[in-house]
Amino acid sequence: MTKDRTPSGKLGINTQLVRAGYDPFDYHGFINPPPVRASTVLFPTAEVMDTHAQKYTYGTRGTPTTNALCDAINELEGAAGTILVPSGLAAVTIAFLAYLSPGDHALVVDSVYGPTRHFCETVLARFGIEAEFYDPMIGADIERLFRANTRLVHTEAPGSNTFEMQDIPAIVEVAHRRRAVVTMDNTWATPLYFKPLEFGVDISIQAVTKYPAGHADVLMGTVSANAEHWPRLKETNGALGICGAPDDAYQVLRGLRTMGVRLDRHQQSALAVAHWLESRDEVARVLHPALPSFPGHDIWKRDFKGASGIFSFVLAVERKQDFKRKAQAFLDALTLFGLGYSWGGFMSLALHVNLFDRRVTPPPAGGPVLRLQIGLEEVDDLIDDLERGFAAAEAT
C-alpha cells in the first residue's frame, strides 16, 4: 500500500521550504533531486517528435532539475509560471523585453538597481523605448507621469542602496487602471517577507543569486508571472533561448531549504547592527526600512513580514571633498567585512555606494553612503570590526 504523502493543512514557511518543488519518492527516495544535464532529448516515435507530445523536448525548455526549482518558486510566489535565467539582471531585462515594444514608454523607479538603469538607457533606448525615472515615494501620484503609450511600471522595494519604500498597492491600482504591466524586483525581501503577486504586481523578479542560493557561489535569476501575463513571458523566454543551468538550479534548490532560518538570522543581526549604528555620533543616518526613524517605515510595517540583512548608513563627514577618503579609510580597516559586490551569502560585506546616476531623488545628505550586508557571523564580532572602521575614518 502506497503511503499518502500529501500534507494536511497549511504548512509553516520552513516546512514549505523543505518540501517545495520536489518529492523525494519521484527519484527512489533520494532527498535532493539529481542534477539532470541535457541538451538533446530523445523521442520514442516520429509522431511524438512532430507533436512534442512529451514533457521534455530540449534542454533549453527545461529538465527535471530546473522544473523542480520552478515549481518551488511558483509555490512560494503564488505564480502561474516561473522562468530561470542566468542572473538577476537577466531576470529584469527579459521581463522588460517581454512586455515592451518600440515606441513604448516605461516608468522605472529612480532607486533602481544600477545595471537595470544602464540597460534602460542603452539597450531599451536603442530599441526606441523610453524609460522615465520616478521618485520612489511618489505613490498614487505616479498617475501624472502616465502617457498614452505607458506600458510598464517597474518597482523595487526597498530601493537599491538607499532603501526607499514604495507604496506598491497604490502604484498597482493606478497602473492597472491605465492598462500597464507592473514588474517588481523583490530580491531584498524574497517571497518569505513580501509576495508581490498577492499585492497585484504582475511580474515578480528575484536574483536568486542572493538569499535562495545563500552561499555566494551561484548566479541565477527567476521571473514569476500571474496567470494573465505568464503566456507572454514564457513565449519571450523561449524565443530568446535564455535558460538557467541544471547544476545552478540544483544549488539554488539546496540553498532554498535553509533560506528561512538563514534569513531570520540575517534579519536579527542586521537590526542589531542598525540599532547600534543609530547610537553612534559618527553616523549621520541609518537607511533601514525596519527602523521607526526611517521615512518609509510605516509602509514596510504595513506590507512586509520581515526585513533582510542588507542596509546602508551615512558616515558623518562634513566636507564633500573628504567623502571618498574617509569612506575608503573606514572600509580598509575592516577585517571581518569583505569588500565585495552582491549579498545574501553567509559572509558580511561592505562597500561605498556610488549614487551618481540618480535622476530624480538626491543622495542622502551628511556624508558618504556605506552599504552593509550582515552575514551569519556573531553580531559582537561585527560591531568590533565596525569600531575599527570608525577609528580609522576619524584618524584619516
TrEMBL record:
Q: Which InterPro entries match?
A: Cys/Met-Metab_PyrdxlP-dep_enz, Cys_b_lyase_bac, PyrdxlP-dep_Trfase, PyrdxlP-dep_Trfase_major, PyrdxlP-dep_Trfase_small
Q: Which GO terms describe its biological process?
A: L-cysteine catabolic process to pyruvate; transsulfuration
Record keywords, A-Z: Lyase, Pyridoxal phosphate
Q: What is its EC number?
A: 4.4.1.8
GO molecular-function terms, A-Z: cysteine-S-conjugate beta-lyase activity; pyridoxal phosphate binding
Q: Which cofactor does it need?
A: pyridoxal 5'-phosphate
Q: Which reaction does it catalyse?
A: L,L-cystathionine + H2O = L-homocysteine + pyruvate + NH4(+)
Pfam family, any one: Cys_Met_Meta_PP
- The modified positions for N6-(pyridoxal phosphate)lysine read 210
Which protein family is it in?
A: Belongs to the trans-sulfuration enzymes family.
**What is the name of this protein?**
Cystathionine beta-lyase
